[in-house]
Amino acid sequence: MLDDRLAKLSDVQKQCIRLSGEGRSSKEIAPLVGLTHQTVDQYLHRARQALGAANRREAARILSEIENGRTFKRFEFKPKAVVEEPDSAIPAGPTEQDERASGLPGLPPIGGKPNDLTPGARLVAISKIALFILICGLAMTLLLKGAFVALS
């Protein structure tokens, strides 16, 4: 049954399917087989119909199974290992500046793992920040009031 489907395909159609199975687009396949990209699309469409495939990738899989006489392993192709870049923009650990900034009186440390505080510790940290903002606001208000009194 598979050989009947294969007999319906021309050599150019088979070549187009093989090239599309490599991940090439119709525009990339066209110069390799000496056709326009529209003609390549038509050849691939007719080949898909002849093989009973839903898309190009499935047509390439079916053709590979027929020609090689074995089933295609879905997870056979594995990506190369990802190499970490040694020069990252994100610092590996706390810097001197971070250590100095975290030493401000009463403020929580800068950085750290996300959500590393317990709910109670979060409330304490939020309260400290709110108190710091309140004190800064009051100081600014007193400064402005003193400036208006001095100017009037």
From TrEMBL:
This protein's record includes keyword rRNA processing: no
Keywords: Membrane, Transmembrane, Transmembrane helix
Gene3D superfamilies linked: Winged helix-like DNA-binding domain superfamily/Winged helix DNA-binding domain
SMART domains: HTH_LUXR
Keyword Transmembrane: yes
Annotated transmembrane regions: 129-151
Stretches assigned to the HTH luxR-type domain: 6-63
Region (Disordered): 84-112
Domain of life: Bacteria
Pfam families found in the cross-reference section: Sigma70_r4_2
Protein name: Helix-turn-helix transcriptional regulator
Organism per entry: Sphingobium agri
